From TrEMBL:
It is a multi-pass membrane protein. The lineage of its organism: Bacteria, Pseudomonadati, Pseudomonadota, Alphaproteobacteria, Rhodobacterales. Belongs to the formate dehydrogenase gamma subunit family. This is Formate dehydrogenase subunit gamma. Residues 52-77 are annotated as: Disordered. It is found in: Cell membrane. Residues 1-20 form the signal peptide. Its main location: membrane. The keyword Hydrolase does not apply. It comes from the Bacteria. It is an enzyme of class 1 (oxidoreductase). Residues 161-359 form the Cytochrome b561 bacterial/Ni-hydrogenase domain. It comes from Roseovarius pelagicus. Keywords: Cell membrane, Electron transport, Heme, Iron, Membrane, Metal-binding, Oxidoreductase, Signal, Transmembrane, Transmembrane helix, Transport. One of its GO terms (molecular function) is formate dehydrogenase (NAD+) activity.
């Protein structure tokens, strides 16, 4: 289930990466180099264009052509020096290493530069656009719609909305997420923005502290995620009221409020985004926390291939023979991409929980909300609460 979920989530972000595996239309003429790579191959790679590496990865020596042991080339088992280096580079060399560990036999891994370029380029650029764009949209929304006020007359009567344990779970999740977001951004934006501004010395202290906080606070986030899931999943299962709520756009721009239970459809979307994206961030984070121990991408790509999802999305056959370092590179990118998406969603959530809606914050602050607020935003839930209160009042023995 977990893996299928990750498989589905993965399909969202590897569209561009998958295209890199398409075969080029024409095979370049390499006769001048005797089949070895040409200057044009090297330049094309440097321009970031796709280069079919088959002519190198398949040319790693043929044992059947091995020279006899008596011959000088016999020690290489039929492979020349360049062929051996290619075999090392493309992961097909038969290696015995004296050191231990899951990645010990990967002596050359050629995805590092691709990963670094993506991390320093599109990831930073589009990540910033997403967060900045979300803040701009929220500012615009505030200017157009203003604060969502309590329409009716306040009753002065409060209803308990969240128990202390629920608020604890929420603030553990919120506090840890904010710390993780800040320290994650520090390590992502450090090299490009913070080092030029503060210098290496200051940044190194900040980076070490950030990494420590990020690695350790992650446990609080995971625990809180489980708490929130267990406590609130029952209230977040989709039902018919959600369709009506969504069709009316939550009543945000119209008069009147569509009926809702404890959580309306908008909140259910937030809940499931937090749970699913939070789980995906946690799994990829664990993979990074225990390098080379938890490899999730080759298995996910294999599932995407097997279910035909990669084909359906035009990604072709995804590679499943990933080097341990490639697993880490994908985990880092995925971790950051999904975190950016969840941060943008949480910006909107924080806005509506504070500035955007009168009376909302009390639900997580004191745990009690104004009854009129509750009637306007969660009318069916108020009915449920009142119905539960009623039998108690009816059963109560009147004082003589
Ligand atoms: C300063 C930051 C935050 C504030 C002020 C805030 C405020 C609130 C409030 C007032 C509610 C209750 C809404 C209601 O009564 O209907 C709520 C619910 C919730 N919060 Fe937060 N929150 C914050 C950060 C976060 C973060 C970082 C996460 C997750 C990573 C999160 C996840 C949730 C979830 C899943 C719910 C239930 C669904 C919903 O009401 O949208 N919150 N929050």
């Amino acid at each position: 289930m977990f893996r299928t979920l990750i498989a589905l989530l993965l399909t969202m972000s590897f569209v561009t990466m998958g295209h890199a595996q398409d075969a080029p239309a024409t095979v370049p003429d390499r006769s001048a180099t005797g089949g070895a790579q040409t200057l044009e191959d090297i330049l094309a790679r440097q321009r970031g264009e796709k280069v079919d590496n088959g002519f190198r990865s398949d040319a790693t020596g043929d044992p059947n052509n091995a020279a006899a042991p008596s011959n000088q080339l016999g020690t290489l088992g039929g492979a020349s020096d360049p062929e051996l280096w290619r075999a090392l580079r493309f992961g097909s060399a038969d290696i015995t290493a004296s050191n231990n560990g899951p990645a010990a036999t990967t002596l050359v891994q050629d995805g590092g530069m691709r990963w670094l370029r993506f991390r320093q380029g599109p990831l930073l650029t589009y990540g910033s656009y997403l967060l900045g764009g979300t803040l701009l949209l929220l500012a615009l929304f505030y200017l157009v719609r203003g604060r969502i006020r309590i329409d009716g007359v306040k009753t002065g009567h409060k209803i308990e909305r969240f128990k202390a344990i629920e608020r604890f779970g929420h603030w553990l999740l919120a506090g840890s997420f904010i710390l993780l977001g800040l320290t994650g951004l520090i390590s992502l934006f450090g090299r490009k923005f913070l080092i030029p501004t503060f210098g290496h010395e200051a940044f190194s202290t900040l980076a070490v502290a950030s990494k420590w906080v990020h690695n350790n606070v992650s446990w609080a986030f995971m625990i809180a995620l489980v708490m929130i899931f267990v406590m609130w999943v029952i209230h977040n299962l989709p039902d018919r009221t959600d369709i009506n709520w969504l069709l009316k756009g939550g009543g945000i721009f119209s008069k009147g409020h569509p009926p809702a239970k404890k959580f309306n459809a908008g909140q259910k979307l937030i809940f499931w985004s937090v749970i699913l994206l939070g789980a995906s961030i946690s799994v990829s984070g664990l993979s990074l926390l225990f390098p080379f121990e938890i490899n999730i991408f080759a298995a996910t790509f294999a599932k995407l291939n097997a279910f035909g999802i990669s084909e359906l999305l035009g990604l072709g056959e995804l590679r499943t023979d990933l080097a341990p370092h490639e697993e880490m590179q994908y985990a880092q990118l995925w971790h950051a991409i999904v975190s950016f998406v969840l941060m943008a969603i949480i910006f909107a959530h924080i806005y509506i929980g504070t500035l955007g809606m009168e009376g909302a914050y009390d639900a997580m602050g004191s745990g009690e909300v104004e009854e009129q607020w509750a009637r306007e935003h969660h009318s069916l839930w108020v009915d449920e609460v009142k119905a539960k209160e009623k039998p108690n009042t009816e059963n109560a023995t009147p004082a003589e």
